[in-house]
Automatic annotation (TrEMBL):
Domain Acyl-CoA dehydrogenase/oxidase N-terminal as annotated: residue spans: 24-136
Protein's UniProt keywords contain Oxidoreductase: yes
Entry keywords, A to Z: FAD, Flavoprotein, Oxidoreductase, Transit peptide
Keyword Transmembrane: no
Domain of life: Bacteria
Protein name: Acyl-CoA dehydrogenase family protein
Provenance organism: Streptomyces hyderabadensis
Domain Acyl-CoA dehydrogenase/oxidase C-terminal: 244-390
Family label: Belongs to the acyl-CoA dehydrogenase family.
Co-factor(s): FAD
Gene3D superfamilies xrefs: Acyl-CoA dehydrogenase/oxidase, N-terminal domain, Butyryl-CoA Dehydrogenase, subunit A, domain 2, Butyryl-CoA Dehydrogenase, subunit A, domain 3
């Protein structure tokens, strides 16, 4: 009888051996983004979070462009043309540093750039995408309004044609990542033809983006209101290839996919902090990691963390094969963000009082994830998406 092959050693950082699913190119992307985040974000992010600012965001955007992280899953126009799995791995590594950094990249690539790439004219693509891919121009995405979040069909922002063919845009958008530093905004508005998207240079007269302060979540991120006061746009400012909610919702689905991965980055960072703490923190004469209750917490956290990464990987392979449905993205966001928050909260209990300190990443990740839980689709909306898919009955209204 042939000898049984020698099993690889158990790796606490990869207990399911998920790295075996990755190609060398995937690992190279992951390691590049992880290295950039370790060098440029982790040494400073606690201070940024405490001060509620993201200094040097334009420089950070150019650096992210230089490593191919902006619009990385798009083809052409200076974009990297990476696979969905590679984009997901990048989101995981960015959010392991901070959700605000991943949000910067997601909004740039999966919302603003994706909208122009998929629905824009060739002239719009040529004008904006190469500079956005390089990080020379930051973009934002205006859909949510002060009174309309989960019900975008009821948006009040309006665009009307005037006698000369120009568009006149008026309204407000709220909770817009990158808004006050953006050079271009993709804004969705009601028109006589239905909901349309507009490519709006932010230096247009009548456009302003006051920054939102006093946040207790996503503090290392730029969040703004968009105010359009009779902004005049040329006839060709409209995205020509889509009318209706299909446009913004398809962009959101692409961005939500990144969250499926990214949330696991925040969870991984918190788990690793708890594991290291449990190995070194002594109580009653020995490390707390040697007590049964602490080991039970660590085991449950590891199970949910790596199940979530496996789910993200599966969805990424489906996206690469052109088989990923929006309902499956809802499945991933609903599960992974909820589990990530639970992992952070459990990690906090292992760290005890130290868990609330910015010396450790756990509370920062936990508060950031409270925003991730509700933006780009609340828990309830994703539950209803799945409920409708399961029953065939629409419970939204």
């Amino acid at each position: 009888m042939a000898a049984s092959p020698k099993l690889p050693a158990f790796d606490p950082a990869d207990p399911l051996g998920l790295d075996d699913l990755l190609e060398p190119e995937d690992l190279a992307v992951r390691d590049t983004v992880r290295g950039w985040a370790a060098d440029r974000v982790l040494p400073h992010v606690a201070e940024w979070y405490e001060k509620g600012e993201l200094p040097g965001i334009r420089e950070l955007a150019r650096e992210l462009g230089s490593i191919g992280a902006l619009g990385m899953s798009l083809e052409g126009y200076g974009c990297a043309g990476a696979s969905a799995v590679q984009y997901g791995l990048a989101c995981l590594e960015l959010e392991a540093a901070d959700s605000g950094i991943r949000s910067l990249v997601s909004v740039q690539g999966s919302l603003a750039m994706y909208a122009i790439h998929r629905f824009g004219s060739e002239e719009q693509k040529q004008q904006w995408l190469p500079r956005m891919a390089a990080g020379e121009v930051i973009g934002c995405f205006g859909l949510t309004e002060p009174d309309h979040g989960s019900d975008p069909a009821a948006m009040r922002t309006r665009a009307k044609r005037d006698a000369g063919g120009d568009w006149v845009l008026g309204g407000r958008k709220m909770w817009i990542t990158n808004g006050s530093v953006a050079g271009v905004a993709v804004v969705w508005a009601q028109t006589e033809e239905g909901i349309r998207g507009f490519v709006v240079p932010t230096d247009s007269p009548g456009f302003s983006a006051p920054e939102i302060k006093h946040k207790w979540s996503l503090r290392a991120s730029v969040t703004s209101e968009l105010v359009m006061d009779d902004v005049r746009l040329p006839a060709d400012a409209v995205l020509p290839e889509v009318t209706g909610l299909r446009g913004p919702l398809s962009c959101l689905s692409h961005a939500r996919y990144g969250i499926v991965w990214g949330s696991m980055g925040a969870a991984r960072s918190s788990f690793e902090a708890a594991l290291e703490y449990a190995r070194s923190r002594e109580q009653f004469g020995r490390p707390i990691g040697g007590f049964q209750l602490t080991q039970a917490k660590l085991a449950d956290m590891a199970v949910e963390l790596h199940k979530g990464i496996l789910l993200a990987h599966h969805l990424g392979r489906r996206m690469d094969a052109g088989r990923l449905r929006p309902e499956q993205v809802s499945f991933g966001k609903l599960n992974n963000v909820r589990e990530a928050i639970d992992i952070c909260r459990t990690a906090r209990t292992i760290l005890g009082a130290n868990g609330i300190s910015l010396e450790y990443p756990v509370m920062r990740h936990a508060t950031n994830l409270e925003s991730v839980l509700t933006y780009e689709g609340t828990v309830e909306m994703h539950q209803l998406v799945l409920g409708k898919a399961l029953t065939g009955l629409d419970a939204f209204r």
